[in-house]
Amino acid sequence: MDHAADAYRTDLMTITRYVLNEQSKYPESRGDFSILLNHIVLGCKFVCSAVNKAGLAKLIGLAGETNVQGEEQKKLDVLSNEVFVKALISSGRTCILVSEEDEEATFVKPSQRGRYIVVFDPLDGSSNIDCGVSIGTIFGIYTLKDAREPTLDDVLQPGKNMLAAGYCMYGSSCTFVLSTGSGVNGFTLDPSLGEFILTHPDIKIPQKGKIYSVNEGNAKNWDGPTAKYVEKCKFPNDGSSPKSLRYIGSMVADVHRTLLYGGIFLYPADKKSPNGKLRVLYEVFPMSFLMEQAGGQAFTGKQRALDLVPNKIHERSPIFLGSYDDVEEIKALYAAGENKE
């Protein structure tokens, strides 16, 4: 047994230790935020374990059919939603929850209420489960400004008001990426310890990337600036090499790669979806928050993504996010298009 190696493993920066270190920078902190994050992390560990068993689901009855006892088995996305709703309410630190799976916002009853609002997509990309592609959970946290009865207006805030955002990706490893407003850090689950360990401290996205990521199957419905930008990626007119196309079709996986390797991720509006496809509160905002914290940009085709004020909880928006210089290029194309009009 390698005792030296084992001793080293206890000196690791776990996510709990990281959050407590951050908390100690604010003497007035009561630890509420740390407790909330702990519950989110627990939800992610549970979903990670369930996702790993997904391939066996049909054999062991976890796939939406009825089991021998006549009990309804739950699909993974429904299960994940229940896991997070229960974990967040039981933290005693939340007042409103908005989930991609629920049509209405959940208002926590007064006896279990706290001052945080959590918006989340419990299992993004769940249609990819059966083919083993990375999927993930995305979340954003707002705070209730003053001690009063929470209303839906407290949720419909611009993304720049978010306190923290992150995602957990269930892939070849389980990765938890978090920003509390001062940089972005990545943690990887060590299954033998059951702990998330800091493996990607202070993530910074490259200033310019060599990858573009978009569903080109929608190309015939794109607007002018998007079509021009993608054309430029493939046939650059300045003598530079063309960009590589990488598109997984799972937002967490595509954004994770963009964050680490640089480049741009696009989900533009088109004739079929004039408002884009991705949801503002729990997809566009958290990912835009992380991108900006890592030194990148996020743009909707009209404005900075985090300045957008949603009117309803499941509102959609186009999004272009990634390396600073790459997003600048698409912004210039949209500005030129507006000037022509």
From TrEMBL:
GO terms for molecular function: fructose 1,6-bisphosphate 1-phosphatase activity; metal ion binding. It catalyses: beta-D-fructose 1,6-bisphosphate + H2O = beta-D-fructose 6-phosphate + phosphate. The keyword Cytoplasm applies. Residues 13-201 form the Fructose-1-6-bisphosphatase class I N-terminal domain. Its main location: cytoplasm. One of its GO terms (biological process) is gluconeogenesis. It is found in: Cytoplasm. SUPFAM superfamilies: Carbohydrate phosphatase. Its cofactor is Mg(2+). Its EC number is 3.1.3.11. GO terms for cellular component: cytosol. Coiled coil: none annotated. Keywords: Carbohydrate metabolism, Cytoplasm, Hydrolase, Magnesium, Metal-binding. InterPro entries: FBPase_C_dom, FBPase_class-1, FBPase_N, FBPtase, Fructose_bisphosphatase_AS. It comes from the Eukaryota. Residues 205-334 form the Fructose-1-6-bisphosphatase class 1 C-terminal domain. Belongs to the FBPase class 1 family. PANTHER family: FRUCTOSE-1,6-BISPHOSPHATASE-RELATED (PTHR11556), FRUCTOSE-BISPHOSPHATASE (PTHR11556:SF36). HAMAP family: FBPase_class1. This is Fructose-1,6-bisphosphatase, cytosolic. It comes from Rhamnella rubrinervis. The lineage of its organism: Eukaryota, Viridiplantae, Streptophyta, Embryophyta, Tracheophyta.
